[in-house]
Amino acid sequence: MRIGFVELVLLLFIASITVGPNAALFVDRWLRRAQRTSAAAARRKAQLEAQAAIEREALMTRFRVASNIFALLMLAALAYGLLLRPIDTPPKAYTTPDVRQDTGAAQTALSADSKDGWKPGGYLGVDCVRTQDGLVYAAAYNGAAMKKRQSDLVRTDGGHTAAILSVEGELTGFAFDADGDLWLTVVTPSGGALCRARHDSWGTSVEQVVTQIDGAPLGVLSAVETGPDGKVYFAVSTEAAAKNGLESALRTELIAHTGTGCVYVYDPSARTVEQVLGGVAGAAGLALSEDGRTLYVSDLGERCVWAVDADARELTAGGKHCESFVSGLPGYPGALALDEDGILYISYRWTRSGWLEKHADSTLLRGIALRAGENIQKKLFKLPADAPCAEAVDTADGSWKQTFSGRELDGCTAVCPAGSKVYFGAAGSASLLSARV
């Protein structure tokens, strides 16, 4: 049976009337259900986003609170570290020394020619220089940290160089006596020691002679001198801790100004130790006149050199029978040396610090500097190229002979006249600089 076009149209019309409303209802219900599902999903998403936002805000609030607490703790730790933390050397107020006017001495530049200097070898620095029988001796060290430091006594005849003696720690000074024995001041992290190496046993044994006084360990030793009568003078720069060496102790004394430096004399025949001078704000160098009667002591903090009778005992810096030979120096005096003509050479560890002396009466600010640590303290003290690294003065009449400058240095650690030259040791440099005289 054939279905015509008309019949097909009628059948589709009847089917649409019969089925159409149900299909429309189904589609409508499906669409509504889909809309409800979508709306519910949107609501759930919004709820989740809102919940996430609340959790984020709560987390951020906790983080901000923790950050604020951490910042407060850091500020408290910083305040404690810089203001309240106990230190071994509480600073004392003092009166700033005067500044000397220009002396009119001849200006001498340090030589730029490497042939005029001397490089002892693969060392990190030089602490002391001496001459004996036409030879030049230098105390040179390896190891930046004190607990790993070893010092050698190096000798040269102008050509050949040799290490003749080694010690553990920092060899801050040495001197020869009339018998040819070698006297040394050595500093280790545990303290200082005056030592002797006999002329027939160099390089094999170093005898510790003085390690304590009245039961107390020696502090940071800085220099040693021997007299024609066999007595040995040695300087304890300060009572500051020895764990970081001489340079650190001198910086500490400059900032703290405790005035605890002393000079002692050891009599080898009687085996006694007596105090010659006390109350020095950093006893950084010694020199003894050729006749052994006058002892010169550099006072770091007071920027002067004291001249005292070598036979005197229990003197106080600036007190009775202790007069300043030169004062108002342009820098902080360190190592001293006398030549055969009585010319005293004064080396300068650092040039005068304006900030430090401006706050001489402020123990608070200097206490902060002491607590701030080594790196901050180092920035306070330098030797610019235009500042003198050493000066020479005639001990006979007090006239100034020469001023040495021309190199930017971290500090001048040693000075030694040798014929027509003067050798200089520089902090952080194993090379000896020189100048003509």
Features:
2 domains, 27 strands, Neuraminidase, 5-stranded mixed β-sheet, alpha+beta, 5 helices, about 425 residues, single chain
Short structural description:
Residues 225-347 form the SMP-30/Gluconolactonase/LRE-like region domain. With 437 residues, the protein is an alpha+beta fold.
Taken from the alpha-carbon principal axes, the silhouette is: elongated
Low-confidence stretches: none
Q: How many individual domains?
A: 2
Mean pLDDT: 88
Q: Please report the total strand number as a whole number.
A: 27
Helix content: 25-40%
Which sequence of strands runs across the widest sheet?
1-24-23-22-21
CATH topology of the largest domain: Neuraminidase
Largest sheet features: 5 strands, mixed
Which structural class should the secondary elements be placed in? Answer: alpha+beta
GO molecular function, one term: hydrolase activity
Organism: Faecalibacterium prausnitzii L2-6
Transmembrane segments: 6-27, 65-83
Domain SMP-30/Gluconolactonase/LRE-like region: 225-347
